[in-house]
């Protein structure tokens, strides 16, 4: 089956599109997608291939996920999601464990965003969620993104607590891809309950009180009273606000 799948990939390969994707997904030396190889196949075509080969075994899916070719890993995840949806509880547990064991191979933002809510988020929806908090404190960029994006499944059920708590943990993360992911999840919270989002923002996007070097510091409570939300995170979170309110938040005038 894998040979047939690979033949389909060869047929759909687009070298010009591959060059564009290599740049878009930052595959150069030292970039977040370093070493990722693209064939230039659009996602709708990959979905068709995944549907055609959705009977692949877990062993075959593992082989695809271990590839440095991006499209193979994405197709593997599409097939895995399909298997998960059709699985009983024991099989879902096995797929959940398999996913976590392959987290190192789910190593670009589109792969995470496609799969994490549909497998990790869905499986943990009515279960204890400490795993997500552990992942949010990982040194691995993709595990941290899995942690926050998985909560999208909870948001859709109007369950916001874990999204907000994990957002707090990731508030001071240095990577732009985490800022974007957290901002995106906060925006989704706001689309369902803007008051919840604004209460969170009011804690973390005000300008911090500080002091000058010449100040006579007596009241330490004025020093860094607020954590600063990264600008990109804030922009994503308030994207759906009306313009005047959005400007107030961006200027810290709330």
Number of helices: 15
* Low-confidence parts: 208-226
Which of globular, elongated, flat, extended, rod-shaped describes the shape? globular
**Structural class based on helices, strands and sheet pairing:** mainly alpha
The strand count comes to 0
Rg from Cα: 21 Å
End-to-end distance: 58 Å
Mean pLDDT: 91
Strand content: under 5%
Residue share in helix: 55-70%
Summarize the main sheet.
none
Query: Element order, helices and strands?
Result: HHHHHHHHHHHHHHH
Describe the structure.
- This protein has 254 residues and is mainly α.
- Helices cover 62% and strands 0% of the residues.
- It contains 15 helices and no strands.
- It has helices at 2-12, 15-24, 43-52, 58-65, 70-86, 89-101, 109-124, 130-136, 141-150, 152-155, 161-169, 176-192, 194-204, 231-237, 243-250.
- The longest helix has 17 residues, at 70-86.
- The protein starts with a helix and ends with a helix.
- Mean pLDDT is 91; it is low at 208-226.
Q: How is this fold's topology laid out?
A:
Elements (H helix, E strand, L loop, with lengths): L1 H11 L2 H10 L18 H10 L5 H8 L4 H17 L2 H13 L7 H16 L5 H7 L4 H10 L1 H4 L5 H9 L6 H17 L1 H11 L26 H7 L5 H8 L4
Helix pairs in contact: 3-5, 4-5, 5-6, 5-7, 7-9, 8-9, 9-12, 12-13, 12-14
Task: Give me a quick take on this structure.
62% of the residues lie in helices and 0% in strands. The chain has 254 residues and is mostly helical.
Give keywords.
254 residues; mainly alpha
């Amino acid at each position: 089956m894998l040979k047939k799948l690979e033949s389909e990939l060869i047929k759909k390969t687009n070298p010009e599109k591959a060059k564009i994707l290599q740049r878009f997904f930052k595959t150069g030396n030292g970039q977040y997608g370093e070493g990722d190889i693209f064939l230039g196949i659009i996602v709708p075509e990959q979905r068709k291939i995944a549907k055609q080969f959705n009977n692949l075994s877990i062993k075959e899916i593992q082989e695809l996920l271990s590839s440095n070719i991006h499209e193979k890993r994405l197709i593997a995840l599409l097939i895995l999601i399909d298997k998960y949806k059709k699985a009983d509880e024991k099989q879902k547990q096995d797929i959940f464990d398999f996913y976590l064991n392959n987290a190192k191979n789910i190593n670009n933002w589109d792969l995470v965003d496609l799969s994490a809510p549909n497998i990790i988020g869905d499986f943990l929806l009515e279960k204890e969620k400490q795993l997500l908090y552990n992942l949010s404190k990982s040194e691995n960029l993709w595990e941290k993104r899995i942690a926050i994006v998985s909560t999208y499944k909870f948001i859709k059920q109007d369950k916001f607590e874990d999204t907000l708590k994990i957002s707090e943990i990731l508030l001071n993360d240095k990577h732009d891809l985490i800022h974007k992911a957290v901002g995106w999840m906060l925006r989704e919270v706001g689309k369902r309950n803007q008051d919840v989002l604004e209460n969170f923002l009011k804690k973390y996007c005000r300008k911090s009180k500080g002091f000058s070097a010449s100040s006579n510091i007596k009241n330490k409570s004025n020093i860094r009273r607020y954590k600063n939300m990264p600008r990109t995170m804030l922009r994503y979170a308030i994207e759906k606000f009306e313009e005047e309110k959005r400007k107030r938040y961006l200027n810290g005038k709330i």
